[in-house]
Amino acid sequence: MMRLIHQYKLAAALVLWLALPWLGGGSAAADSLEAAPSPVSYQHIVRHDPNFSIHLVTIDLGDPRVSARVARGGPDPDGDGPWTTTLLPVSEIAAREGFDIAINGDFFIAKSTHDIEGPKTGYVRGLFASPEGMAMTDGQLWHRGTNEHPYLGITTNHLARLFEGGRTEPTAAGLCEIVAGGQILVQEGKPLEYRSAFATNRHPRTAVGLNRAGSRLLLMVVDGRQPKLSIGMTLHELSQEMMRLGCASAINLDGGGSTTLVYRDPATHALKVLNSPSDTRERSVADALGITVHAPLPAPKD
């Protein structure tokens, strides 16, 4: 009799265990998957005296739910001519490409346009343009550049590396994405110093930092030219900030009025510009570095 009761209890326990997923209990594997941390973190840092508004996004490139990609503004407007893209706001590039996070990319030149800051900037949608450095998307090098600009490369095995311009042939480095910058800020864990007026004056800045393994990407956007909100940073201040955040290497991308961070709101799924562009509106740019995330995004809070 006791044996029959024991067998009955075992059978009942088995039925209950099989029914748990349908009852909402789920399995241990499902619970573990749901509890997996997001591969993205976001932080907005506000400081005073002096005023700084800093947006940080950290991305785990090793997480299979994440992919990084470089996208040009518009298509090549003149075939074999000197221009390789047309200008477009970062938010429109992100919407077209399905990015969840995006920042402006390389310094660029545009047809018949001078660098005018503010609402009357000449950098508007549709202008013929080209990045100053190299640019690659999905393994296709669509702009080689005329200067030896340093660049950020994403490898086919989802790691990020910084390269000094002109020293490495991108097709030999196993790269599938390239966005160029102006200056390397941190190299092998040490800051680099620059003494030009561009470096020592405070401007809005966009920068990317990496950990030593190249598996973690830090996107930093610093607003500037708005004294009540944020005065911008020198390159020295930017490199020190990257060092403080633990970056083993970092690069300065285009800044000034181009500085933009676009982020998909997890509540509404709409793309939003989180920072405050110094032109008072988004500036159109030549290319963007975008991140697609197949996981919940953290809410953009201070």
How does the major sheet shape up?
7 strands, antiparallel
Output the radius of gyration.
Answer: 23 Å
Shape: globular
Query: What's the helical proportion of residues?
Result: 10-25%
Total DSSP helices: 5
How many separate domains?
2
Topology, number of strands: 22
Q: If strands are numbered along the chain, what order do they take across the biggest sheet? A: 1-2-17-16-18-14-15
Structural class: alpha+beta
**Uncertain stretches of 5 or more adjacent residues:** 1-34
Strand coverage percent: 25-35%
Order of helices and strands: HHEEEEEHEEEEEEEEEEHEEHEEEEE
Give the distance, in angstroms, between the N- and C-terminal Cα atoms.
66 Å
Indicate the mean pLDDT: 88
